[in-house]
Every structure is written in C-alpha cells, then in structure tokens.
Amino acid sequence: KDFPKAIEVFQRLLKDYDKGDKVPAAMLKLGYAFAELKEQAKAAEQLRALIEKHPDSDEAKRAREKLKVLGPPAKPAGKRR
Q1: What would the pLDDT profile of 17-46 be if each residue is shown by its tens digit?
Q2: Rounded to an integer, what distance in angstroms lies between the CA atom of residue 28 and that of residue 50?
Q3: 20, 38, 51, 76: most buried, per Cβ within 10 A?
C-alpha cells in the first residue's frame, strides 16, 4: 500500500528494463498506483501508453477496463472571475 514507493520502483524498472517481459505488468501496476493516489490523469496516461505499446497483452485488456472506471480526464481548474 506504499503507492509512492511502488511508483518509484515501477518507473525505475521500466527505465532499466524497457525490453523485459515484465514491462506490460509494470506499466499496468504503475497506472493502478497512480489511480490509487487519485492522480487520474497520470493513471490514464500510463494505461493508454500500455495499450499503445502492448495492445494484445492481457494487461492491455485490464488497462482498457480500468480506463472505463476512471472515466474522462478531469478538466484543469480555471481562473474564477
């Protein structure tokens, strides 16, 4: 449940082992960790990158399902008048 630490570890894994067979799983878990921290934009970005890079993987299927749950990205808060 230490999501900030998990994010750090998954990002390092993706950087150091970008061709490894665990990349789709790490990308999915990174997206899930961002979602747990209520960082929906980062979660969605990660999940979409997973789908783009590994479209036929089981992880991509789960990423598509998670994106449906996350819903549309939140709009940035604008200046109030």
Answers
A1: 988 899 999 999 999 999 999 999 999 999
A2: 7
A3: 51
Instruction: Taking the CA atoms of 23, 15, 41 and 6 in sequence, report the sign of the dihedral they define.
Output: positive
- Going by C-beta distance under 8 Å and a sequence separation of 6 or more, which residues neighbour residue 73? 40, 41, 44
The rounded distance, in Å, linking the Cα atoms of 70 and 44 is 8
DSSP string, 20-55: STTHHHHHHHHHHHHHHTT-HHHHHHHHHHHHHHST
43, 31 Cβ separation under 8 angstroms: yes
Predicted confidence at residue 70, as pLDDT, reads 86
Q: Other C-beta atoms within 10 Å of 66: how many?
A: 18
pTM strictly above 0.70: yes
